[in-house]
Amino acid sequence: MNNTLKGKIALVTGGTKGIGKAIAEKLIREGAQVIVTARNKPEDITGYHFIAADLAQPESAEIIAQEILDRYGRIDIIVNNAGANTGPRGGYAVLSDEDWQEIWQLNLMSAVRINKALLPSMTAQQSGVIIHISSGAAVLPIWDVTMPYSAAKAALNAYSKSLAHEVAAQGLRVLSVLPGMVKTPLMQEYLEGLAASMKISLEEALKVLTAKAGNLPLGRMAEPEEIANMVVFLASPEASYVTGTNVLMEGGLIPTV
Fold first, then answer.
1. What three-state secondary structure class fits 74?
2. Is 251 left (phi over 0), alpha (psi -120 to 50) or beta?
3. What does the record give under GO molecular function (predicted)?
4. Which residues form the catalytic set?
5. 54, 94, 123, 146: most buried, per Cβ within 10 A?
6. 3-class state of residue 37 by DSSP
7. Residues 43 and 165 in one domain
């Protein structure tokens, strides 16, 4: 791939760290004009347009959409990457309504609202790609680690499939990418918390987590850049016949066909 997205306008939510940052950087290298959202402005925003926004707040989507359309007049690629597994460990009994609501808002409703705000401009131009960053946890939930997160991401997958069917006739493509365990700052924070709660080392915490998930056939976590490579390929004309698909990138972790 070489400048395959030159001139395209792309939005990456949660794009200042981890997978989102890698996606934004890859989109820039492929020639896209990139808009990144996050709650906090990073020190270096060279190469992209930054919009501060908390996507757990319903009004944020309209504010983001208005700024993009006012400045650029259109949107070609939406990568709904914002999300996190913020709930406490321990299963149903320790999860409050507030835990469920927080996870649902960030991992599902943020994407629903962003899409709703920007889809009219995409349908008007009869082109566009929407990619949801879901999770392998949607198809391999771990009851004491990912219960509400898995439920929200599974709902995101179903929503993505439905939306793909609805907008295909308008020339739009909609997909989901489902990473497994990825070496990101959020994963590091999670492992540190797990290690502290269990009074074990980081290496032991990683072994505990991978054992719960069924171990990693490739023997390592993914790098954020590996996820970014797939996302940018799917956003490109080279994937023009791919839509409505949930693309697993979990290093062989999911044991089913």
1. coil
2. left
3. oxidoreductase activity, acting on the CH-OH group of donors, NAD or NADP as acceptor
4. 149
5. 146
6. strand
7. yes
Asked if the structure places residue 24 within a domain, the reply is yes
120 and 213 part of one domain: no
Check whether residue 120 and residue 217 sit in a common domain. no
Does residue 256 form part of some domain? no
Is 95 within the bounds of a domain? yes
> Does 194 have pLDDT greater than 90?
no
Higher per-residue confidence, 147 vs 3: 147
Percentage of the residues of the chain whose pLDDT score is greater than 70: 100
How far apart (Å, rounded) are the C-alpha atoms in residues 34 and 231? 14
Report how far residue 10's alpha carbon sits from residue 173's, in angstroms, rounded to the nearest whole number: 14
What are the pLDDT digits (tens) for 208-249?
888 877 778 888 899 999 999 999 999 999 999 999 999 999
| Exposure string over 202-224, b if 16+ CB within 10 A, otherwise e | eeebbeebbeebeebeeeebbeb
- HSE-CB for 42 with a 13 A CA cutoff: 16
CATH number at residue 67: 3.40.50.720
Fill in the DSSP letter of residue 244. Answer: S
**Threshold 0.85, pTM exceeds:** yes
Q: Convert 161-179 to b/e letters by CB count within 10 Å (16 or more is b).
A: bebbeebeeeebbbbbbbb
Please write the tens of the pLDDT for every residue from 46-105: 899 999 999 999 999 999 999 999 999 999 999 999 999 988 889 999 999 999 999 999
C-alpha 185/C-alpha 178 separation (Å) is: 18
Structural domain including 187 reads 183-221
Same domain, 243 and 191: no
The verdict on 165 and 198 lying in the same domain is no
